[in-house]
Every structure is written in structure tokens, then in C-alpha cells.
Amino acid sequence: MVKKGKNRKGIMYSTNPDFEYEYENTEMETLPPSEQNLNICIDKHRAGKIAVIIKGFVGTTEDLKALGKMLKTKCGVGGSVKNGEILIQGNVRDKVMEILEEEGFNYKRVGG
User: Is 31 helix (H, G, I), strand (E, B) or coil?
Assistant: First the structure.
């Protein structure tokens, strides 16, 4: 079933009872790891805590969550997946880069 509402394409209202709305496809197809270009950066959060942020993933939300879960599990830390970004708690950027390299992802170290 397709969600009704904001994903309607072009038409807001129609008086035709047989009219079928066209819906935009908001989910993008996930690129294979070798075609992904991820940016890995370090950010300081509240109370001076350090977190690793991974940006630039192209794909479905489910695949992004799966990648985030795999990284958190292999690093043995917590984190979250929000707004198309993976947030990993702690200063584990080098370990994250090793894991992404093993999995075949293209990545770029950004900042410090």
C-alpha cells in the first residue's frame, strides 16, 4: 500500500472519482559498496564526548540501519542512525575505516 499525503506528485485535488494519484518514489536504490562515497568525520557533542559521523550513504533506510548496526557491533560501541547519517559513539574512526575497507566501501577521512 502506498502512503497518502505528501508524496503525491503534481496534483493536490481532483473531483474525478476514478482519478488515480501518482506518487513520488522517495526511496533510492542502494548502491553497491564499491560505488559508495562515504565521508567519515569526528564531532564533539555534549560534555565533550567524541562521536564519529558517517555521511554520504546512498540507499534505502533499511540498508543504512543495517550498516550502522554492523559498525556498532564490530566496534563494540553505541550510536544511532538519523537523517541519513550514522553516528558512532567514541573516538573509533580508525577502526570504522578498517571495517569499511574490509567491506569494500569507498570512504574519505574528513577533518582532524
Answer: coil
Instruction: Tell me the pLDDT tens digit for each residue of 81-103.
Output: 998 999 999 999 999 999 999 99
**DSSP sequence for 66-86:** HHHHHHHHHHT--EEEETTEE
DSSP state of 51: E
Between vectors from CA 105 to CA 45 and to CA 27, what angle results, nearest 5°? 80
Distance CA 52, CA 43 (A): 6
Check if the beta carbon of residue 91 is closer than 8 Å to that of residue 52. yes
Q: What is the CATH number of domain 33-110?
A: 3.30.780.10
29: DSSP letter: P
Look up the pTM and report it.
Answer: 0.72
Three cell numbers at 27? Answer: 526511496
